[in-house]
Design brief:
This protein is mainly beta and 60 residues long. The protein has one domain. The chain is built from 1 helix and 2 strands. The protein has one helix spanning 2-6, and strands at residues 12-28, 34-49. The protein has a two-stranded antiparallel ribbon. A hairpin with a 5-residue loop joins strand 1 (12-28) and strand 2. The longest helix is centred in the N-terminal third of the chain and has 5 residues, at 2-6. The protein is rod-shaped and about 70 Å long. The model has no long low-confidence stretch (mean pLDDT 76).
């Protein structure tokens, strides 16, 4: 994930947050007849600062 921003030299990455979760569930009843379910989620949050394009780098 951080590699995606590696070549973008103007961005200043301040924080990277990765969240993931897995939820599993199942039911049993008559032998060989079962029911199951699974869920998952994955979130990536990236906080960046970008330079002001209106400010010149040559001015103090």
């Amino acid at each position: 994930m951080i590699g995606a921003f590696k070549d973008f030299s103007d961005a200043e990455v301040e924080e990277v947050t990765i969240k993931f979760g897995i939820k599993l569930g199942g039911k049993t009843g008559i032998p060989f007849l079962t029911e199951g379910s699974a869920e998952s989620n994955f979130e990536i949050e990236v906080k960046c600062k970008f330079p002001d394009p209106h400010k010149s780098q040559n001015t103090p």
